[in-house]
Amino acid sequence: MSDAYLGIDIGSISTKGVVITEDGQIIARSYLWTEGNPTEASKRVVRELEQQLEDARSQDGADAVRIVGAGTTGSARRLVGAMLGASVVKNEITAHAVGTTHLHPDVRTILEIGGQDSKIICVADGIAVDYAMNTLCAAGTGSFLSSQAHRLGVEVEEFGDIALTSQKPANIAARCTVFAESDLVHKIQMGYERQDIIAGLCHAVASNYLNNVGKGKTIAAPVVFQGGVSKNAGVVDAFEKLLGIPVAVDADGHLMGAYGAALLAADAGPIRQAESGPFATGTFDFEAMLDFDFKTREVECQKCANHCEVICVYRNRDIIDSWGNRCDKGAIKTTA
Fold first, then answer.
1. Which 3 state secondary structure label does DSSP give 265?
2. Cβ contacts of residue 58 below 8 Å, gap of 6+?
3. Tens digit of pLDDT for each residue in 100-140?
4. DSSP character for 270?
5. 211-215, Cβ contacts within 8 angstroms, sequence gap of 24 or more
6. What is the spatial distance between Cα 157 and Cα 214, in angstroms, rounded to a whole number?
7. What is the rounded distance in angstroms from the CA atom of residue 56 to the CA atom of residue 68?
């Protein structure tokens, strides 16, 4: 039996999970929609990962593995970290940088576009030295492409292949979602070919990203593009044309946050036997996580003028984690 590590990346649109060996090889992977419920999405990802490990053992004769550590990242990393009993809870910048530099030690620039957010990470000597994230505009994200695909009656998964057939991409305004959608409708009414409009949308996403998220950043090669949108060959092509340099895309690039979280957990080493939760026996118990009922509750602290909104996470009525307090007066004692 070999040791393995679990990584979960909980985003606003999708939740990703991987299980890796001690040397960083991915042996199970999952990508599911969050659907506004990060706790249930994380449970579904864990179920899928468990099933993949069982299938590999029964069908391929793979060695049995025991998960001895876990890490989380993403927007709900604290919540899901508490659910998993994770030893590592890190922000997305750190997780993506760790995962990418493990696969690409010489990477200088990481472009990442997800469902509702996007980021750029500048790397020097394997260390993230600068970064930026998008603000409120969604014109350069996956959700924007999905909504436009619906408007055009095309599956978003088909966008990339269709875009590559265009000989003359339409010029779509990329300043913001509202302008882009208005320009899209105008181009449709003008009779533009569908492939030219789709190619124009892909170009608009890349252009918007570089002019907003990447503004003022030095984009040096080698460049790695990741996140769900990296699966769109049309956007990859647009980035390469705008930057004038090759852009690398990994098969598991959309899982890089989860991969980085798992690598960080591996660096931290096996979790010592916990008092309760999935690691109560020292090895991750899938059923122990799935059987517990997790709830969150917001408490407004009245102990000082800050009136902090403290988020409390409960498992079967026991509080296992809390955050949001800006001073020790708002600290809440946990039972885990």
1. helix
2. none
3. 999 999 999 999 988 778 899 999 999 999 999 886 566 66
4. P
5. 211/174, 212/134, 212/135, 212/137, 212/140, 213/118, 213/119, 213/120, 213/132, 213/133, 213/134, 213/140, 214/111, 214/120, 214/132, 215/132
6. 25
7. 19
